[in-house]
Amino acid sequence: DSGVTQTPKHLITATGQRVTLRCSPRSGDLSVYWYQQSLDQGLQFLIQYYNGEERAKGNILERFSAQQFPDLHSELNLSSLELGDSALYFCASSNHHGGKLFFGEGSRLTVL
Amino acid sequence: GIQVEQSPPDLILQEGANSTLRCNFSDSVNNLQWFHQNPWGQLINLFYIPSGTKQNGRLSATTVATERYSLLYISSSQTTDSGVYFCAVGGRSGGYNKLIFGAGTRLAVHP
């Protein structure tokens, strides 16, 4: 158990819908990262937050947004979903910038 | 951005065999980590190793940052070692906190 909690574990939805994925980092970790894993793109960095502020941005679509709340949990919002958004979405946390990453178990999103 | 290449892409071993996985990267890095994704999809951090050598049980890793490569050694492999091994790097050009993952080495250990 990494200490990073993600919910939901599985999610099935339809094209055009909006979903929210939630992540609670390890106790004491200030940085939260979101990654997307798909068969064709591999593991792609989406976005990082540190103590509530956005710190790095990767290949995140405009239809996706994220935020980190004062209690340090983070949410990834995916809207206007397309079939190609079906993937495993991972959250990870570390105790500082560039620190050792600990991953949650992921949220598997299926868009039908 | 930084390019990360892992080799071999696939590896099949008999239980008890040793193996070496390689990660080459295209630019200077100050953050390098190795992960194991087990067959259930969990990503487990094996090493944080931007330089030098570390050992953890049957696993060890070496990063030679000046020559832009890292090696992961697995000794006396067990069936539970099966899964995909990823190398991930971060550097000045992309941001050391933004880890770029390689495509992975898929390892199957047979009894």
3D structure, described in words:
The complex is a heterodimer of chains A (112) and B (111). Chain A is mainly β. Chain A has strands at 5-7, 10-13, 19-24, 31-38, 42-50, 53-57, 64-68, 74-78, 87-94, 102-103, 107-111. In chain A, strands 2, 4, 5, 6, 9, 10 and 11 form a seven-stranded mixed beta sheet that branches. In chain A, strands 1-3-8-7 form a four-stranded antiparallel beta sheet, with no helix packed on it. In chain A, a hairpin with a 2-residue loop joins strand 5 and strand 6. Chain B is 0% helix and 56% strand. In chain B, strand 4 and strand 5 form a beta hairpin. In chain B, the strands form two sheets. In chain B, strands 2, 4, 5, 9, 10 and 11 form a six-stranded mixed beta sheet that branches. The A-B interface holds A 2, 31, 33, 35, 42-45, 48, 55-56, 58, 88, 90, 92, 94, 97-103, 105-106, 108 and B 30-31, 33, 35, 41-45, 48, 86, 88, 90, 95-101, 103-104.
Strand percentage of chain B: over 45%
Helical content of chain A stands at under 10%
What's the alpha carbon Rg of chain B, rounded to whole Å? Answer: 13 Å
Chain oligomer state = heterodimer
Beginning-to-end CA distance, first to last residue of chain B: 40 Å
Taking pLDDT < 50 over at least 5 consecutive residues as the criterion, the unreliable ranges of chain A are none
Biggest sheet character of chain B: 6 strands, mixed
SSE arrangement:
The complex is a heterodimer of chains A (112) and B (111).
Chain A: E1 5-7, E2 10-13, E3 19-24, E4 31-38, E5 42-50, E6 53-57, E7 64-68, E8 74-78, E9 87-94, E10 102-103, E11 107-111
Chain B: E1 4-7, E2 10-14, E3 19-25, E4 31-37, E5 43-48, E6 52-56, E7 59-64, E8 69-74, E9 83-90, E10 100-101, E11 105-110
Parallel strand pairs in B: 2-11
Antiparallel strand pairs in B: 1-3, 3-8, 4-5, 4-9, 6-7, 7-8, 9-10, 9-11
